[in-house]
Amino acid sequence: MTAIEEIAPVNLTPARTKSKGMRLTSRKQNNIFGSPIASFFAIVIALVWTIPTFGLFISSIRTPADINNTGWWTFFTNPSFTLENYNTVLFEGSSVTPPLSLYFLNSFAITIPATVFPVVIATFAAYALAWFDFKGRDLLFYTIFAMQVIPLQLALIPLLQLFANGLKIGDATLLPPLGITGTYIPIWIAHTMFAMPIAIFLLHNFLSQIPRELMEAARVDGADAFKTFRMVVLPLSIPAIASFAIFQFLWVWNDLLVGLTFGGGKREIAPLMVRLAELTGTRGGDWELLTAGAFVSIIVPVAVFFALQRYFVRGLLAGSVKG
Amino acid sequence: MRAIKRRSIVLATTSATAFALILTGCSAPSGSGDIPAGCEAYADYQGNSGTEVEIYTTVVSPEAELFQESFTEFEDCTGITINWNGSKEFEAQLPVRVEGGTAPDLAVFPQPGLLAAMAATGKLLPASDAVAASVEANYSPDWKNYGTVDGTFYASPLGANVKSFVWYSPKTFKDNGWDIPTTWDELLALSDKIATTSDVQPWCAGFESGDATGWVGTDWMEDIVLRFGGAEVYDKWVSHEIPFNDPAIVEAIGKAGQILKNPEYVGDVPSIATTSFQTGGAGIVDGSCAMHRQASFIGGILVADQGATIVTPDDTTTEGGITTFYFPGATADDKPALGGGEFIGAFADRPEVQAVQLYLTTPEWNNKKAALGGWFSANLGLDTANVADPVNANAVEILKNATTFRFDGSDLMPAAVGAGSFWKEMTAWVAEDKSDKAVLDAIEASWPK
Amino acid sequence: MWIVTARSPFATVLPNIVLLLVGLVVFVAIIVLIFVLSERTKEKTQNRLKYFVFLGPALLLLIIGLIYPAIRTLYLSFFDARSENFIGLQNYIWAFTQPEILIVLRNTLIWTIVVPIASTTIGLAIAYLTDRMKYAGLVKSLIFMPMAISFVGASIIWKFVYAYQPDPNKEDIGLLSAIFKAIGLTPPNWLLEAPLNTFLLIAVMVWIQTGFAMVVLSAAMKAVPDDIIEASMLDGAKGWARFTRITIPMIWGSVIVVLTTITVTSLKVFDIIRTMTGGNFQTSVIANEMYQQSFRALNYGTGSALAMILFLGVLPLIIFNVRQVRKEREVH
Fold first, then answer.
1. CATH 3.40.630.10 applies to domain B46-162+339-401
2. What is the value of ipTM here, to two decimals?
3. Pairing state of beta strands B321-326 and B165-168?
4. Which of A108, A146, A315 sits opposite C318 (nearest CB)?
5. Under CATH, which number does the domain A94-318 receive?
């Protein structure tokens, strides 16, 4: 018991590299990579990467006529500034199309469970696939891996049927109609299902890198599969799980198809993206609304990234460093 | 400032609605029999209070609000709530929802082709007798026919449009001394004259429309086949009794090419494929091009996006005023019309669903909806006086009076062609300068056997 | 004020929040309960129980959500448009005899090669360049931002880059055209010119995926112990040599993961193509054709056949990954 409790909080890096002479000097001090030239290139690439999004931002504060007739860069020589686009998409609405701000709650209510559920279940499976010894383990892992390419669109109809009508084989009812259509539940379940292959694939890569010695030590100490998971695997893989969770959060937040299909056509539970896709209007030309709407929809994912960035830095468990 | 004003208008109308709802909430009839005061016209639809009906459609804001507004009185008087559910993914989502067991109550089909596919699933229900009777009374037999699949009448007509229009600016024409052409030859002569004697580009066009890019090209083809092949050839072409590369169709695409593939007329030909259909006609508003062949509905778009004003042909003074002349055929007397429309069909047979479908076929609703602007239908009871826009009013007259009227052919063809190869090949025809023959051969090859 | 305008949504806000909380609480409660109970069972039972607990939920979800639909798709691919008549291999024959399909296959191949390599290379470069940089966080956040943007948003963003103005008298709203004109060149109609257009669409995907590659690889680099780097410095390894001989081998596992994940994503790409060219101008890929056939032409037979062809595309990737794992095991 005590052995595990000692091992668990140990920093992985020395354990993995088996080096005792880890220097504690700050990385910045021997900063030979961080040469001015390297920094210069990094900044240039970052700027190039940002220009298109910046263009979106500038466009979103211009008037419709300006957007349609002049390039967004002319804003700097001839600035005319309006917040009306934001006002329109966020707060104006009608009974048919409520304002965008109302959809934030739905997006959160969909995204949080649709991130938590698959991350937990996939971590379980990744642990089993990485550390349980059983026949056909590799085959199973690669089958799951291959499922990443199954196009989502093909799974929509059978899944909808399942949620709406239950599951019947012949006359036997294996699952009665669940009566959950029109709630968030089908959306959560669908996202969880579709996330499984990639979640298991990525998390497996992290979990399988946990030093064997740690796992052995836990077993010698009498820990069973459950205790090992709880006391060794989970604490060590929190950064990896967190970083995957961020990606899953982004994917679900930005998803259109699943929310649209499994929402059962109900506005009350539709996520932000569904509304954003309709902002173009029947005529498809309302660029001022789209640019503002698109920018609004970026804010949450970017905030999440900034808030959780330290997990990336702490390291994804860095699946990769071999000792 | 404009925003605030607009918002308060929205607020005013919706809170009025809400207020009305509260009012009628107390008096809304629980059973048939007692009809609230002022609701006598809705006697046929009573007995469904407290129910909800979903209408699934491609129509989203801002048109969606007008539909919802047109339902208000019906909702207040019957206690039925109509949930107008617009999605731009309608075409792909409808089959998914229908197969998946979560079909909407009512669906607005933008094309009879999709209607036929849904009828084939067995999930779309035949229209009720009352709806069928009302459609017979209020629409020409043709329109009932478009909603009929294999002899069963499923879907009642909703909105309509007329395609055989050339949009132009009367002021530009007057200022340059151009006359409205009445025959194909005059049309080409005028185009030549504009090209050689002025800075204005004779034609402008835009085929881009997301994943439906190319439909504008199919409209051109249909209009020309109808003019030079005649109604009989047109029907055979649509039903594939003659091959897609039949000489009559070869002739038609050649005639379309006289305009669309002539750089003297349209400028850079390939960029037609990347110009959106919404902005394709912007040139007639700002005077940079003279003519734009497009359906009646483009007027509303040019008004909203380009600041155009729809005027009558006599109004030659309004800057940015646009109107239409008839897309000419071989002779001035030859005036077949091409149009399109939407159809509404039911996936549920609850009484309130049938009540809503029935209500939408009545002249009362059609007039109410038309009066809200930017919309018309083929309903015979539609009073032209309720259609304010002069082009739409003209279109309504055409729908009522045209001796030869044909429905948008690509919408009637199998989806693999009408929403697939026909669009794609017309796009390649302008974008990649694909030859007339190669285009027609490829479409012919794609026709489902 | 705007609460008034929303008739229905607010009425459902409360039940929705309750559902959200209940959903989360129930889920967590179940997990905790399972662990508490499992840890109390005998070792023998546990050895069986652990498969049910750890693998069971994932497998159940996969079977219902993906395996069953995949089998159904395989089945439908042998049937006609309305899934009524068995037609053998005709859908596959159709797919491989369509003249356009060669272009589609070629494009898919280009996507699955160029996107992973370009995104990973650039991501790796940025991870390396910023590894010890002062404002690395800011630079990385900027590069990561496209990951946070939906396809709906991305297609709008890139419209303002690739837009082409055919009328020489009107101003450009597309950035690329404006740059070309500024330096005295005649801009082409960007999304029209094959094969340029395919690469321009690929650029959008690279723009999005680089952030993913950078984040994963940067984290991997952070985990490379300082003493190894310092030892290599003492050995006299300089910049490039250190990069290729030390850094790359140390993070190779992560590079493979990144390459694989991005390849799968590119294999499935269709939103970008659908929104930007609609698959016209010789830019279509298999996933887009599949969508077109299934949901536009309403031909589930050909759509399913294309999906199965897409599925075959993942085989080389699996073989590649299996080999890498084998190699790694041999080393250990």
1. no
2. 0.85
3. antiparallel
4. A146
5. 1.10.3720.10
